[in-house]
Write a structure and sequence with these properties.
The protein is built from twelve helices and 23 strands. By secondary structure, the chain is of the alpha+beta class. A six-stranded mixed β-sheet has the order 7-6-5-8-9-10, with helices on both faces. Strands 18, 19, 20, 22 and 23 form a five-stranded antiparallel β-sheet that branches. The chain has a four-stranded antiparallel β-sheet with strand order 4-11-1-13. Strand 9, helix 9 and strand 10 form a beta-alpha-beta unit. Helix 2 runs parallel beside helix 10 and helix 5 packs parallel to helix 8. The longest helix is centred in the middle third of the chain and has 38 residues. The two termini are 29 Å apart.
Length: 573
């Protein structure tokens, strides 16, 4: 075995040291070995799922390919793939394809109009325990468990994740409703930070009311000092909420990234008591109305977090993930008008504050083709609409020549003729380079098994050794079957190159970034041809903390443009 040894350190949530190699002059020589070449001109089928609903939210059935127009960047694209799916059709097709490998590509319209594409359906139940009232959460989770029981059947898989200042996968993807329901039931005693935030908000409102009533509303020096102090407290409150929001949206981005390399339909059902798009905006308006001073509203620009929501929805659209949001707050009275409050509050300010938490959920859902369930004490109807989306939709497809670059394209779907129906679909299609797709799949394989290993990758681990502080060095050996690597004749040598992608995830759900390394393979031609099958090895040293870690590796051959994936679990020490 001829082995090239490279050392690399991978720190969870940190940095990997990569070594590279210069690519030789390949010319037009025929390579030795390697997998089948990918065509130089790659044709990609862009699939768009379209939900067509009538005025009462019911699925509209019976439409055909001629009833739709689809435009990319303003240019109409011929529809090459079309299917109408509903619950009965999916169940029938699933029964017909009960054997492994039933997921098949849709045939172009005109060649086999009856062919259907039954995609895997991946649903993440995301419970934001940091941004939800426990009593509200438990009321909603009872309905969510009913949703699981009614909808968890092939081709649906569900995962449960919990966020509480950090993300935790409570239940990996499963097709067993009992497992998923048990994971949800286990959250009923968890608490988060929303109660503390609400307590501070109510205290500020209470103190503001006291300052307003001081000296019967006269403007005294004492009242002026209270006004300034309250302004400072509101600013500090908004800053704390903004920090908490950034962490919360980071958790959502992490789940979207987990789904990036999975094939099929992907959805996140996000359950919370809302997120502030402009932290502290309600209190700012209360302060302005109480002290008749609009200057505090200048803080709005400082704390406006719209950009973060834009970034999240752009990422979700890029990974073809639809966001569904459930507001657990329900039909509560306006903030500050509950029976236990002894002071009055400006209705407009209260409405602005409450609406800010809901509007962010509506925005996330609408921007990604999902649904927001808000303003209701019973989320059953909203969950019913989400269930309908899982099983009732039109699948439209069109072909494009791949540019092998990361590009964003605008999508618009229209119905022909005069039809007063509601259409929902993702508004962006992100074309990915081949390398970006591989990195996505490596990241995804940290959570979901991806069985694609045509290069015969093998991973082994040696015993970890103490590193610095609480960290350990875990030696990992990657072995690649050389007969599956294209080697170009260069003089008396056979030269090839592989690009390696490495990622890791610990038991607490913390992921490293996926790191990229290039490695050159150089072998004496006579020796390789004489010995036949050999392997090429790369050694890594991964810097990790104690515990169990999942390590995922992807390898790409730039000549044949083929990729392979392998993963393993490493226990440290």
């Amino acid at each position: 075995m001829r082995t090239a040894t490279t050392s690399a350190a991978l720190l969870l949530m940190g940095l990997a040291v990569a070594t590279g190699a210069q690519e030789g002059d390949e010319g037009n020589l025929k390579p030795v070995g390697g997998l089948a070449f990918v065509d130089e001109v790659q044709v990609t089928v862009v699939n768009v799922d379209v939900f067509v609903r009538d005025g009462k939210g019911r699925p509209v059935k019976g439409l055909g390919a001629d009833d739709f127009r689809i435009l990319q960047n303003g240019v109409e694209m011929p529809i090459s793939n079309f299917a109408e799916l509903d619950t009965e059709v999916i169940r029938h097709e699933m029964s017909e394809r009960a054997m492994e490998g039933f997921f098949e590509a849709t045939e172009p319209v005109g060649e086999d109009p009856t062919a259907l594409e039954i995609k895997p359906i991946w649903v993440v139940l995301y419970i934001d325990n940091e941004n939800i009232e426990p009593l509200e959460r438990n009321r909603v989770l009872r309905r969510v468990r009913e949703f699981v029981t009614e909808n968890l059947e092939a081709p649906v898989e569900m995962m449960v994740v919990s966020y509480q200042r950090s993300l935790k996968v409570v239940q990996p993807f499963s097709s067993e409703s009992r497992e998923v329901s048990a994971a949800l039931r286990g959250m009923v005693k968890q608490t988060g930070g929303r109660e503390e935030i609400e307590s501070e908000r109510q205290q500020i409102l209470h103190d503001m009311a006291d300052a307003k009533n001081q000296d019967h509303g006269t403007k005294t020096n004492t009242q002026g000092g209270a006004k300034l102090q309250l302004r400072q407290r509101i600013s500090a409150f908004a800053a704390e909420e903004a920090d908490s929001l950034r962490l919360a949206l980071g958790g959502l981005r992490q789940v979207v990234a987990m789904l990036s390399g999975i094939d099929g339909r992907k959805s996140i059902i996000y359950v919370s008591s809302g997120l502030p798009m402009v932290p502290g905006i309600g209190l700012m308006h209360d302060h302005a109305m109480t002290f008749h001073d609009q200057s505090i509203l200048s803080l709005r620009g400082r704390y406006d977090q719209t950009r973060l929501f834009n970034e999240l929805t752009s990422l979700a659209n890029a990974q073809e993930v639809s966001l569904y949001a459930i507001d657990a707050t329900g039909l509560n009275p306006l903030d500050g008008f509950e029976a236990e409050n002894t002071y009055s509050r400006d209705p407009t300010s209260s409405s602005i504050g409450s609406r800010d938490y809901r509007d962010s959920l509506v925005y996330m859902a609408e921007a990604t083709g999902g649904i927001a369930v808000v303003n209701t004490n019973d989320v059953s109807r909203g969950l019913g609409q989400i269930s309908s989306d899982l099983h009732n939709y039109y699948s439209l497809g069109y072909t494009v020549n791949s540019s092998d670059e990361d590009r964003v394209h605008r999508i618009k779907v229209q119905l022909t003729g005069e039809r007063n129906y509601d259409l929902r679909y993702r508004r962006r299609y992100v074309e990915k380079s081949y390398e970006s797709s591989i990195q996505d799949r490596v990241f995804t394989s940290l959570v979901v098994d991806i069985d694609e290993n045509p290069m015969g990758l093998e991973l082994t681990a040696a015993e970890a050794i103490p590193g610095s502080g609480t960290q350990w060095l875990a030696p990992i050996h990657l072995s690649i079957d050389l007969k599956n690597i294209a080697l170009m004749p260069v003089g008396d040598e056979l030269v090839g190159r592989v690009v390696v992608f490495v990622g890791a995830r610990d038991e607490e759900g913390r992921n490293s970034d996926v790191q990229r390394q290039e490695h050159e393979i150089s072998l004496p031609k006579a020796e390789y041809l004489a010995t036949g099958r050999e392997r090429f090895g790369i050694d890594f040293r991964l810097l990790m903390t104690k515990g169990r870690h999942r390590v995922s590796v992807g390898v790409m051959d730039p000549i044949t443009r083929q990729a392979s994936y392998q993963r393993m679990v490493v226990s440290v020490p």
